Amino acid sequence: MDATLALDLIRETCFLILKISAPVLLVSLFVGLIISLLQALTQIQEMTVSFVPKLIAVLFTLVLSFPFMLGELTKFTHILLDKVTILKS
């Protein structure tokens, strides 16, 4: 394996990680922002008020985006295995 192929695989892997984790991170960010604004307005400073809605939103997002994540990982695995079989022959 030469350096260009290794760097290409690393670049594709990093992009895949960003693409797969983006929906969950963005939902967590927005829910956290909304909850912190509500806490600032109502002056309720309890940790469970911010933790539970964020946990529910992240779990809901994971359930909804699981087919997308699985499809992207499967596609990447096929591409990776194709590159490995080309290197072997």
Verbal overview:
The protein has 89 residues and is an all-alpha fold. The chain has one domain (3-88). It contains two helices and no strands. The protein has helices at residues 3-42, 47-88. Helix 1 runs antiparallel to helix 2 (47-88). The longest helix is centred in the C-terminal third of the chain and has 42 residues, at 47-88.
Mean pLDDT: 91
Report the principal-axis shape: elongated
Low-confidence stretches: none
Oligomer: single chain
Q: How far is it from the N-terminal to the C-terminal residue, by CA?
A: 12 Å
Rg, nearest Å: 19 Å
**Sheet with most strands:** none
How many helices? The count is: 2
Helix content: over 70%
Query: How many structural domains?
Result: 1
Structural class: mainly alpha
Strand tally is 0
Beta percentage is: under 5%
